[in-house]
Amino acid sequence: MPPEQDIPGRVLRTLKFRPKGMTITELARALGANRNSVSKYLEVMQAEGHVEGRLVGNAKVYSLAQRIPISAFLCFTKNLILILDADLTIVQANDRCLARFGRNKEEIVGRNLREAGLPVVSSPEALAVVEGLEQEQVITDICYRRDDSREFFYQMQAIPTTFEGGEKGCTIVLEDITERKHYISNTSFLARTAMDLVDLPPVDDIYQYIVDRLMELVPGAYAYLFSWDEASHRFVVRVVAGEGFRDALTELLGRDPIGLVLPVARVFDAPYHQTPGSLRGLQEFVLRPEPSSWSFYDLCFEAFPEEVCEEFLTRFNIAKLCIMGLVWREQLFGITGIFLHPGRELENRETIESFIRQASIALARRQTAGRLRRSEVRFRTMVDSSPCGVALIDRDGRFIYANRRFVEIFGYGPDDAPTVAEWTRLIFPDEAARQEAFSAWRSDLERSVSGQIRPRTLTVRSRDGSRKTVLARAVTLCDGTQYVNCEDITEEARAYRILVADIADLRRREQEMLLKDRAIASTRRAVAILDPGGVVTYANAAFLALWGYPTAEEVQESHFSRFWERPDEIRGIVRTVIDGGSWHGEQTGIQSDGAAFRTDLLGTPIVAEDGRVLGMMAAATFRRNGA
C-alpha cells in the first residue's frame, strides 16, 4: 500500500501510544510524511469521529477519539435517547425511551420523527430545535401535558452526530426533570405564600386565599374549607371552589352552601374519635367505586340524605376525598378538603401539608391579633370612659397616650405638647413652681421602684386660666413606661378647707355644749329632754333620784306621761311645748314605788337655729306640802 494511503492507519497506531496527543508537525515527523498530507487526513478522520482535535496555544493537538459502543451507552443511561439521521429518520432508540413512549422498536425505527407522533420529541418545540441544529449541541427545556392534564418536564439535548461512514445525524437525549421542576416550583410556591400570609391585610378573606392556593396546587379539582368556631362549637362552610362547583351545590342542596352550619363537630365523637392532633395530617378516603372506610354519607356526618350524597359523587365524578385540619399547637381553626376525579392522585402532598401548616399559623396569628385588637379597643374604651385622667409616657418623656379626661383636667394634651417638658411649661407658667414640680418628680422617681405608686398633689393652671388642685399618682411599669393617673380634686380641696373650719367650729360648740350638759347634769332641779314625740331621751341624776330610778336606762325610751298622775294632761302639755309654746305649773308625779309627790313643772321647747323645734326640756322642782 502506498505510504500516502496508509497515513490514517499509521496516525491511529502512533496516537495510540501518545494519549496526550500530537501536533500536525510532530505526526508528520514521526510518520516521515508531508505535513500538508497529514493535515488533510486528520481533518477527514476528525469528521469521521476517529480523532479529536483541541487547541493548545497556537498549535492544534490531535488524539484518539474516546468512543464507547452505542449499544452500551443506550442500555445503561437512565435518560431517553433517540438517534436520527440527517432526514430525521429514527435510527435507534434505547429501551427506556420505548418504555416511556409505550412503543416497540419496530414501530418507530425507520419512521420520520415528524410523522412518528411520539410524545415530547414530535412536538413543534422539539422539532424546531432539531431542524435548526448545526454544529453545536442545543439544550432546552420542554413541557409535555398529558391528556389527564398532568404536566411533565424534560431537558432535551440535541447533539450533532457523525456516523461511521461520515454521514451526519442527530442524537436526542431526554432527561426527565419533572421532580426537579416540581421541587423548584413548590419551594417557590411556599416562599411566596409565606410572604403573602404575613402581609395579608386583616380585611382580606384568608379562607378564600387558602382555597385559591390549594386550587393552584391541584388544578381541575374541587375544594372546600370549613371554619371552626370555638365559642359556638360548630363548623361553618366558608369557601367552595372549582369550576361550577358552587352553583351546582346550590342546586343540589337547595341553598347557597356558603354560611351553612354543619354537624362536623361530631368528628370528635364516636365512631370517628378524631382530635386536633389526628387532623393535623392529610387523610385520604376512597369513595368510589367502593368506600375504603367510611362512605361519603358517613363523612358528611349524615347531614344530607344518602341519595343527595350519591348524586353529588355522580354529578361531579368524585372518586376520592383528601382532608386536613387547620391545626396549630393543638388548636383547631378549620378543616379543608379536596375532591379528586378517578385516577387522579395528589402529587404535591408534602407541599399541600406544608402550605396548610403555614395557613394554620397565619390563622392563629390572625386570631391572636384579632383578640389583641378587641382587647385594646375594650381597654381604650374603658380608659376613655374613666372619670380619672390617664396618660402613658415613654422613657424619653414623650406622651404615648392620654385619655379625654386627662385633656379635660389640664386643658392640654399630646397634640398641644408632645413631651412632658413642653406640657409642664404650659401647666406651670411660673418658673419657680415648675422647677419645684420637676424636682419633686425626679425625687419621687429616684426613691421608687417599678410598680410603686408615687402620689403627689399639684396646683396647676389650666388652659382657661383657672387654678386646679390635682392628685397625680405615677407608677413606673416594667418596661420603663410611666403610667400617670390624675384626679381633679379642686372641689374636694375646697370642701376640705370648709370642713376643717367646720370641725373647728364644731369643737368650739362641742365645748360649749359640754359645759351646758355638765350644768344640766349637776343642777339640783330634775331635768328631762324629750324628743318631738314626747319620749325621754335624757334624764339627769336629780330626775332619777326624785322619781326613784337607779339608772337612766329605766327612764329613757319611755313616754314622759308615764311618770305623772294625769298622763293625758301631760300629753297635752307636751303638744303645747312642741308646737312652740311653753308651760309652767304644778303637777303630781308618781315615783317608781307608786308614791305620789307634788312638783313645780316648767316645759320649754328646744329650738334650732333655723327655728325648727327639736324637742322639749322639762324641769321639775319638788314641792313640799304647803310649800
From TrEMBL:
The record ties this protein, via PROSITE patterns, to: PAS
> Where does the PAS domain lie?
81-113, 375-452
Which stretches are transmembrane? none
Highest taxon in the source lineage:
Archaea
| Any matching Pfam family | PAS_8
Q: Which InterPro entries match?
A: ArsR-like_HTH, Biofilm_reg_signaling, PAS, PAS-like_dom_sf, PAS_4, PAS_fold, Tscrpt_reg_IclR_N, WH-like_DNA-bd_sf
For this entry, the protein name equals PAS domain S-box protein
Originating species? Methanoculleus nereidis
The organism's taxonomy opens as: Archaea, Methanobacteriati, Methanobacteriota, Stenosarchaea group, Methanomicrobia
